[in-house]
Write a structure and sequence with these properties.
single chain, 205 residues, alpha+beta, Nucleoside Triphosphate Pyrophosphohydrolase, nine-stranded mixed sheet, three-stranded antiparallel sheet, 4 helices
């Protein structure tokens, strides 16, 4: 069960929030498992929130299932987040704003504690993932245009590398590898699973 020890690990291992915009920050990508593949030439800035909910029964991480009608990654499992807007103060502001817009999680319940490796997607985004510790007691209101549903997965499950399955698929005539973390009928995969894996590596490697 995750506890104060895990919170200390987060605070000691994550990039501090004033370091988030540093161009020298480490970058991961969808191609970590696929050497020789080129990413999309553009890397549009985006940010996501990895909400860690401090449940008394065991800490969990919140994920969204994207609406099938949305143009951005329809039907996929993701963290709440999106593109950085000119009006956003920084990536943390983007992550909190998008979380409010997508699932209605109020900022007063969230304590951003740090970021980890930026993540380049093959769809052309450079994503800054922000860990936010979330106090229970909130209520969610989903934007149906963007989010079909939400679910929580235990951190004990996500932070166990035995659950980080490596799978393969054919893409553009070539074999491509990716992580999958199946939980309770949900397949956390692709960039989201890659970010979870990168978080585990940051904390425990």
């Amino acid at each position: 069960m995750m506890s104060a020890d895990f919170e200390h690990l987060l605070r000691s291992k994550l990039d501090p929030l004033d370091f988030v915009a540093d161009a020298a920050a480490r970058t991961r990508s969808d191609n970590d498992l696929n050497p020789g593949w080129d990413n999309h030439p553009d890397t549009r800035p985006a940010a996501v929130l990895a909400p860690i909910i401090k449940r008394a029964s065991g800490w969990t991480m919140l994920f969204t299932e994207r609406a099938k009608e949305t143009p951005a990654h329809p039907g996929q499992i993701s963290f709440p987040g999106g593109r950085v807007q000119a009006s956003d103060a920084d990536a943390v502001d983007t992550a909190l704003r998008e979380t409010w817009e997508e699932v209605g999680l109020e900022r007063r319940f969230i304590e951003p504690v740090g970021a980890w490796d930026r993540y380049d997607t093959i769809t052309g985004f450079r994503v800054t993932p922000i860990v936010g510790l979330v106090a229970p007691g909130f209520e969610l209101t989903l934007d149906p245009r963007e989010v079909a549903s939400v679910f929580e997965a235990p951190l004990d499950f996500l932070m166990n590398p035995a659950n980080h399955e490596k799978r393969e698929a054919q893409f553009q005539g070539r074999t491509r590898y990716y992580y999958v973390m199946p939980w309770d009928g949900h397949n956390i995969w692709g960039a989201t699973a890659g970010m979870v894996r990168a978080l585990w590596e940051r904390l425990y490697s």
